[in-house]
Design a protein that fits this description.
The structure holds two protein chains of two kinds. By secondary structure, chain A is an alpha/beta fold. Chain A is 10% helix and 22% strand. Chain A has two helices and eleven strands; from the N terminus they run βαβββββββββαβ. Chain B is α/β, with parallel strands linked by helices. Chain B is globular, with a radius of gyration of 23 Å. The chains are: A alpha/beta, B alpha/beta. At the A-B interface, α1 of A face α5 and α7 of B. Bound molecules: iron/sulfur cluster. The site of iron/sulfur cluster has 14 residues of chain B, from loops.
Chain lengths: 240, 455
């Protein structure tokens, strides 16, 4: 079978790809085509060294552990897979994700979880600008702080920020909801703070538990859309 | 004395060039509403275009081909640079990306069927891929737009090509727009938006900025699709020479160039008329860029924006395009701006429908209202019935066939056995502007403005 190497005899269902020795194409081809039928349920990716597009377009309930830093679009358009990154990730981690889990031990660059439809993205440290931009149903939990323009045009899903948020948080929000624990530098157009309901506290509690991050849900505030930009309005000058 | 009175009368009514009726209406409307005008379709102003070019048919120095007896190949292959499975078309005329949401599902289906019957491709739009259009289209190009509405990995895997949309000729630098009346439950759920919102799409992609990022993004799409299908990059015509070079550097298989005459479902009219350059000048710049990079046959070029006739197709190909793409023309083929719509085999007057939205057949640009009187750009249950997919498919097919026959007529007249052999040397211009933009000689002269340092 092409692309399959280093099968550790003691773990038939576990397979290692060494990106220092094997091209990325081999890893992704294996994940897309050869995985089914091999019985492999756990893939280790070693020496990622900032490689872009690691484990993109996976559509299988496989566990993928990336041991080190990943470049752009790690786990992009993921379905079903559980991807763990033991390091930092570049722009667009889990962009377009539909389901599954992506868990980043370190920091995330810009556009984490961009335009993603579902699944859970956890970033233990900080996420940079535009975290959750255009999110369409994904849940994102950030253990640290997020940069400016996070949740820009976010349509659906939940973004939990355990630290602070930068400027223009939730600009042009649709129905996505943000829970923030720290300071918000400023809100974007049409975003505002709303009272937390019991359902909100329960949601934060559940998301933190799934992210394995410990905080008191009572410390979070809810940010959602004022819905004032939903319709054309001659007086809303230039906000369109 | 009568003449003096008449002269006085005329002087009293002298129209100002700067403040003509159009501008006065514009200011009155602006001052009454405090909001810019939004409309559909493309630029209405007159710009140098393919109409300003003519072909030099074969004569003494070249042989023409016989109209019916001699073969003229129209086969077109797109995406030969990296894709394992390039897009193979029977004709070089494709259907441009138009969104489900702006168009009804019936229209998407009709276009898909017509494209499949004529051996060409159709394209999704800002709103995702509908099962109807996937099923009806043999070759379907899936657009990746800044909004990413309905852009998901399952449909990526179903696509025959992916078109990364940077911009659109009608509004380079602007995002999509869909007014609330068109966000019905199905459109809303495909886009994950609340029903009935006035939706503004993003104008920049959420996960990349600039050509270096784009190169990585394109690789991501290639990895996801296992390097099988072509990746197109669509740009609105502005700084075309540089943009085409950057798109090639980013790894595009195919460049889709959309000139300012290209249509839109809804945008500020100031955008439509005042941003972007005409298709003619942009096309020449794009071809220059590909030739400069020595990429002319490796990266294919599709041009759109004001392609209406077989002559337009032939001229675009002669200028150096590999294929064209048609949006507005397809809508007109389906009945846009027609006096009537066809239902149950009979023509019915659409006059009342046009009146309702304050216009008339021949002048309509009201796609943004969602109240298309002929059922083309609507999500209204009743109005969309006015376009029967069967009838629509037939009309769209006829239109594509006519264009293709006209194209081969011209190619044969120029002595070409293959429409892709049409060349710039076959063209001359009727106006100085067109000669300068296309850089072909003014007809009957050997003067090409701007050539050889001539100014
Ligand atoms: S007839 Fe329909 S498709 Fe044509 S311009 Fe009017 S609204 Fe748009």
């Amino acid at each position: 079978m092409e692309g399959v190497v280093n099968v550790a005899p003691e773990a038939k269902n576990r397979l290692t790809f060494d990106l220092a020795a094997q091209p990325l194409r081999e890893l992704n081809r294996f994940l897309h085509h050869d995985l089914a039928g091999t019985g492999v349920t756990h893939v280790d990716v070693i020496n990622p060294d900032g490689t872009h597009n690691i484990a993109v377009g996976v559509d299988a309930p496989v566990r993928i552990d990336v041991d080190g830093h990943a470049g752009y679009y790690c786990a992009g358009m993921n379905k079903l897979a559980q991807v763990n990154v033991n390091g930092n990730v570049g722009p667009g981690v889990a962009e377009g994700m539909v389901s599954g889990t992506v868990h980043v031990k370190g920091f995330a660059s810009v556009s984490a979880g961009a335009a993603a439809h579902g699944g859970l993205l956890v970033i233990e440290k900080d996420a940079s600008l535009r975290c959750g931009i255009s999110m369409k149903g994904i849940d994102i939990v950030v253990g640290g702080s997020v940069g400016d323009f996070s949740a820009f045009m976010a349509q659906a899903g939940r973004l939990v920020i355990c630290g602070d948020a930068g400027d223009a948080l939730g600009d042009s929000l649709y129905e996505a909801v943000i829970y923030v624990r720290g300071k918000v530098a400023s809100f974007g157009a049409d975003a505002h703070e709303e009272p937390m309901s019991d359902a909100d506290f329960a949601a934060v509690e559940e998301l933190l538990a799934r992210a394995r991050i410990k905080h008191d849900p009572k410390q979070f505030r809810r940010v959602a859309s004022k819905r004032e930009l939903y319709h054309w309005n001659a007086d809303a000058d230039q906000e369109y | 004395m009568n003449t003096t009175i008449e002269a006085k009368h005329r002087i009293q009514r002298e129209e100002s060039a700067g403040y003509d009726h159009k501008i006065i209406d514009y200011i009155h409307r602006a001052s009454a509403t405090g909001l810019y005008e939004i409309r559909g379709l493309g630029a209405k102003r007159k710009v140098p275009h393919f109409d300003d070019l003519v072909f030099l048919g074969a004569s003494m120095s070249r042989y023409p081909l016989e109209g019916y007896r001699e073969k003229c190949v129209t086969r077109t292959v797109l995406g030969t640079r990296y894709a394992k499975k390039p897009v193979e078309l029977a004709i070089p005329i494709t259907i441009a990306g138009m969104s489900f949401g702006s168009l009804s599902a019936n229209v998407k289906e009709a276009l898909g069927r017509a494209a499949s019957d004529t051996g060409t491709s159709t394209t999704t739009g800002d709103g995702g891929m509908t099962p109807e259009e996937r099923q009806s289209s043999k070759t379907l190009v899936y657009q990746c737009l800044p909004s990413r509405y309905g852009f998901n990995p399952d449909d990526v895997r179903k696509a025959d090509a992916i078109e990364m949309v940077i911009g659109q000729g009608a509004k380079p630098g602007g995002g999509g727009m869909l007014l609330g009346q068109k966000i019905n439950p199905r459109v809303a759920s495909m886009r994950v938006l609340p029903e009935g919102v006035d939706q503004r799409s993003a104008c920049r992609h959420p996960d990349w900025t600039g050509p270096d990022d784009l190169a990585i993004k394109i690789k991501e799409l290639r990895e996801i699709t296992d390097w099988e299908i072509p990746i197109y990059v669509k740009i609105g015509a502005t700084r075309t020479f540089h943009d085409v070079k950057l798109a090639v550097h980013s790894g595009a298989d195919v460049i889709v160039l959309d000139g300012m005459q290209g249509g839109t479902a809804a945008t500020q009219s100031v955008f439509i008329e005042h941003v972007g350059i005409p298709t003619l000048g942009a096309l020449r710049q794009a071809v220059d860029a590909l030739e400069d990079l020595n990429m002319k046959d490796e990266v294919q070029l599709i041009v759109s924006g004001g392609i209406r006739t077989g002559a337009d197709v032939a001229k675009a190909l002669a200028m150096g395009a590999d294929a064209v793409s048609i949006g507005q023309g397809m809508l007109v083929a389906l009945g846009c701006n027609s006096d009537t719509y066809i239902q149950n085999g009979a023509h019915h007057s659409a006059a009342e429908g046009y009146e309702k939205i304050g216009t008339a057949a021949g002048f309509c640009h009201h796609c943004h209202t969602g109240l298309c009187p002929v059922g083309v750009t609507t999500q209204d249950r009743e109005l969309e019935q006015r376009l029967d997919p069967e009838v629509g498919a037939r009309r769209a097919r006829n239109y594509l066939r006519t264009l293709n026959m006209e194209l081969t007529t011209i190619a044969r007249a120029c002595g070409k056995q293959n429409v892709h052999h049409l060349e710039r040397e076959d063209l001359v211009a009727l106006s100085v502007e067109a000669a300068a933009m296309a850089r072909v000689p003014l007809a009957g002269t050997d003067w090409t403005p701007g050539a050889n340092g001539d100014l």
